[in-house]
Specification:
The structure holds two protein chains of two kinds. By secondary structure, chain A is of the alpha+beta class. Chain A contains five helices and five strands. In chain A, helix 2 crosses helix 5. The longest helix of chain A is centred in the last third of the chain and has 15 residues. The chains are: A alpha+beta, B alpha+beta.
């Protein structure tokens, strides 16, 4: 199997996996970082969202080979102290219920705030297409707006 | 002071090893059939000398906030320092538990509230006695502040931890004094969830995240035809995939009725590898031929026809008042309608998974389960070890909704671990999840109602045809499945003549509990048909319901509140209309008003006003969240949800064809809680039933089109 060197949350890791292995499973199984979740396997639900060079990416369909040389950020690396403005807002509003989709929601929201520091509701709708079966959408929206206000 | 609902012996004060501190076991409502005097504690409070308080209780956290609300109830009566209480893991041996260890039916608070209050109050009482004895004063001269006993006259204070050892030697009072609810400092306030911090940085451990040394990952290619079998297979290519260690044939478990929720699994071929992707790659390389078996021609059109035909004959009476047949015969006008709803999958965000390690003398199971007792029994059976040698390690659940009351995934993991002699984690794909669920049953409903000469509704009859969930447990009592008729046999409206009938459709498709169960369809059909009656007599849908609730005071108050908060009858933005619906389920009453527009045939729900009476509340913020959640779950199903069958196979695959509501379609949901001292109800499910009818009634108000079959889909 080929060898790949990945930069995840600022650290270099060398993994030995098949070329078509999705980045999600490399991070979960080879690197043992399980904060990023598997939800659908076809880039529909967003539970597997990471940042690749700052772009929110659904990694369940993103082959490991495409991630070499890029800066990969997972939920574990969103903030070393869990105090990213979005994480604070998520706690203040108590967004999560079961919590399974929330890593992906946070990573999608973080990319949104980078692109649009003060997103409109329409921009939230367009960027936040992650599925939440607990139906936390109303609080996700509120927390994004709160974090956007705080980040000013 | 309220009375203790258990005998004195059911409290137990024990001191463990030196330094263990105060341990109080308490017994939750006992297992059905357990001897009345048997003592087996089912919850524990542990106060240690370092001022830590631990609560051990048997509820799974699947998003409903139960860890937080249980802690609140205990902290309230114990008068503990909120920040020094932790909730321990769900205990691992359900066989030693006094009640079935499970989380479902919106029962967690209802069945634990009083017991937790008594346990907290009992612990507080012995801590006070320990302090008073040490100070040489009367108990009555002492009071508590969070985490400390205080003797105000001498300004002496002792922390609970410092008293724990002395308290452990004291008898535990059987009838501790409970707080007056008016003095609650936590219960009834919006307390932050305990699990949020873990869920915003990826550290919360779900079943899929479990790591056991030496663990293999399994992916199972299951027969796509229901109850089909393996004809032959060639695993050579799968075994050639790097990392693949084993290929194991699983024969399938038929799900023979008997006992609680017997597992049923499809026949399949499991590929076990070092990593998930290797297992998936091996699975894709399998060459399998299946025997389709007896369901080769099963399809949704045939199922619908079967249900409709069964609806032609009489059903069994689930509830009857007055003379419904006579009243229909003499009615001035008859209104008739038929409704149909489809099978639904649960589609929890975390796909089914389970990790098992079978040893010769026991078995460990790590599972996101709503049903530890069931998981333990299933694991014991397939591991071939005694039940009490199985340990169930409960993780966070990435959604439950009833799906994780099942133990099919446990049976698979245990069989595989036993077969290969290593720990095995089975991970389902989303396609596996949608195609091998225990579905919310399809159902077919025939209504006839009569209007008398004065224009008043005189009779209501409702015949329900559906497969039975309870038939899985064994023969039905009097032929009635209570879950099929819940929310239909007990509608709150004052029809003098009333009939609710049920006919069980014997279909081979696995069915199970899906958030709000029978009320998920009965809420839709009864509240839609109520709307039809209101329209037939040209009455406002709210007023029509209100007038029929003269003897249902709680229901009427909830309906009135939602009407008031939504400004029912007032102006509505152009192009929109509102619908209203009311449903009682799981002891709680919920009314919803939905404001809807339709563009290019697609309904859009803009806002939902919701009123709920669930009796005495614990955490209003959790209720708000659960009501929003219930609305989204029910709205998703109403708009899109259908599992359909062709050639014995489920036609849907993934979120592309089993669609989910997303942010852009999310209505604003405004929740109002009715202050109530009435009996306590659940909150996990009751938000779901009223949303489909509220939306469909709004669509009718807007377009004149009555939706009698779900999902709504695109309007013609």
């Amino acid at each position: 199997m080929p060898t790949y060197t990945l930069t995840v949350n600022g650290s270099a890791h060398t993994v030995d996996v098949a070329a078509d292995t999705p980045l999600l499973w490399v991070v979960r199984d080879s690197l043992g970082m399980t904060g990023t979740k598997f939800g659908c396997g076809i880039a529909q639900c967003g539970a597997c969202t990471m940042h690749i060079d700052g772009v929110a990416t659904r990694t369940c369909v993103f082959p490991v080979a495409g991630a070499v040389g890029k800066k990969i950020t997972t939920i574990e690396g969103l903030s070393s102290t869990s105090d990213h403005p979005l994480q604070r807002a998520w706690r203040e509003i108590d967004v999560p219920q079961c919590g399974y989709c929330q890593s992906g929601q946070l990573m999608a929201a973080a990319a949104l705030l980078t692109a649009h520091p003060k997103p409109t509701d329409e921009q939230v709708d367009a960027a936040m297409t992650n599925i939440c079966r607990c139906g936390t959408y109303q609080r996700v929206r509120a927390a994004i707006h709160r974090a956007a206000g705080e980040a000013v | 002071m309220s009375s203790l609902p258990v005998s004195r012996r059911e409290f137990l004060g024990v001191t463990g090893a030196a330094g263990a501190g105060l341990v109080i076991g308490f017994r939750l409502p006992p297992r059905r059939g357990a001897p009345a005097d048997e003592f087996s504690p089912s919850g524990w409070i542990h106060v240690t000398p370092d001022d830590q308080v631990t609560l051990m209780i048997d509820k799974s956290e699947m998003g409903e906030g139960v860890m937080t609300s249980m802690r609140m109830v205990l902290a309230e009566e114990l008068d503990a320092d909120w920040t020094r209480i932790v909730v321990g893991p769900v205990p691992e041996n359900p066989a030693a538990w006094s009640r079935r260890m499970s989380t479902g039916g919106s029962t967690a608070i209802r069945t634990s509230y009083e017991m937790l209050r008594h346990a907290g109050a009992a612990a507080r009482s012995v801590l006070i006695t320990a302090a008073a004895t040490g100070w040489g004063v009367a108990d009555s001269e002492c009071h508590t502040e969070p985490g400390v006993v205080v003797h105000a006259a001498t300004n002496r204070k002792a922390s609970y931890g410092s008293l724990a050892l002395a308290a452990a030697a004291l008898p535990v009072p059987a009838t501790p004094t409970l707080k007056d609810p008016k003095t609650f400092r936590l219960i009834g306030t919006p307390v932050k969830r305990l699990d949020t911090a873990l869920k915003v940085n990826g550290t919360a451990q779900f079943g899929i995240d479990v790591k056991v040394p030496g663990m293999l990952i399994a992916s199972i290619l299951r027969c796509p035809v229901l109850d089909g079998t393996i004809a032959r297979y060639d695993a050579a290519k799968a075994k050639a995939v790097p990392g693949v260690r084993h290929v194991v044939e699983l024969p399938g478990i038929p799900g023979t009725p008997g006992g609680p929720l017997p597992p049923r699994t499809a026949a399949g071929i499991a590929v076990l590898a070092d990593t998930y992707w290797q297992a998936m790659t091996g699975r894709r390389a399998l060459d399998v031929q299946w025997n389709a078996g007896s369901n080769a021609t099963l399809d949704s059109a045939g199922i619908s026809a079967t249900l409709a035909k069964l609806a032609d004959g009489p059903g069994l009476e689930a509830r009857k008042r007055g003379d419904p047949v006579g009243a229909l015969g003499s009615a001035a006008r008859k209104i008739e309608a038929t409704y149909e709803v489809p099978y639904l999958a649960h589609a929890t965000m975390e796909p089914m998974n389970c990790t098992a390690l079978v040893r010769p003398d026991g078995c460990d199971v790590w599972a996101p389960t709503q049903n530890q007792t069931g998981a333990q029994a299933v694991a014991a059976k397939y591991a071939g070890v005694p039940t009490d040698q199985v340990r169930i390690h409960t993780t966070f659940l990435g959604g439950g909704f009833g799906r994780r009351a099942e133990s099919d995934f446990v049976a698979e993991a245990v069989q595989l671990s036993k077969a290969v002699g290593a720990p095995v984690k089975v991970i389902w794909t989303r396609e596996d999840d949608i195609q091998h669920d225990f579905y919310r049953p399809t159902s077919y409903h025939r209504f006839s109602a009569g209007i008398d000469a004065s224009g008043a509704p005189a009779v209501w009859t409702h015949r329900i045809v559906a497969p039975s969930i309870q038939a899985r447990f064994g023969p039905l009592r009097n032929g009635i499945d209570g879950t099929t008729v819940e929310g239909a046999a007990n509608i709150p409206y004052g029809f003098t003549n009333f009939l609710c009938e049920q006919t069980v459709a014997d279909l081979p498709i696995p069915v199970g509990f899906w958030r709000s169960v029978g009320s998920s369809h009965n809420g839709f059909v009864t509240e839609s048909f109520m709307d039809e009656l209101a329209a037939a007599v040209k009455k406002d849908p709210y007023q029509f319901r209100h007038d029929l609730l003269a003897n249902s005071v709680r229901h009427r108050a909830v309906l009135d509140l939602v009407a008031q908060k939504s400004g029912w009858g007032g102006s509505v933005p152009a192009g929109r209309a509102r619908g209203i619906a009311l449903a009682e389920s799981f002891g709680s009453i919920v009314a919803e008003v939905a404001e809807v527009s339709v563009a290019k045939g697609r309904p859009r729900v803009h806002k939902v006003w919701l009123a709920v009476d669930c009796g005495p509340i614990v955490n209003p913020d959790t209720i708000d969240a659960q009501m929003q959640s219930g609305v989204v779950y029910g709205l998703t199903a109403a708009l899109y949800g259908a599992v359909t069958w062709k050639d014995g196979k489920v036609e849907q695959n993934n979120f592309t064809d089993y669609k989910m509501l997303r942010m852009a379609e999310m209505p604003e949901v405004e929740v109002h809680i009715v202050p109530s001292t009435d009996s306590q109800g659940g909150i996990g499910e009751p938000g779901t039933p009223p949303i489909a009818p509220a939306v469909c009634n709004a669509i009718y108000a807007l377009t004149g089109k009555r939706i009698r079959k779900l999902p709504i889909g695109t309007l013609a």
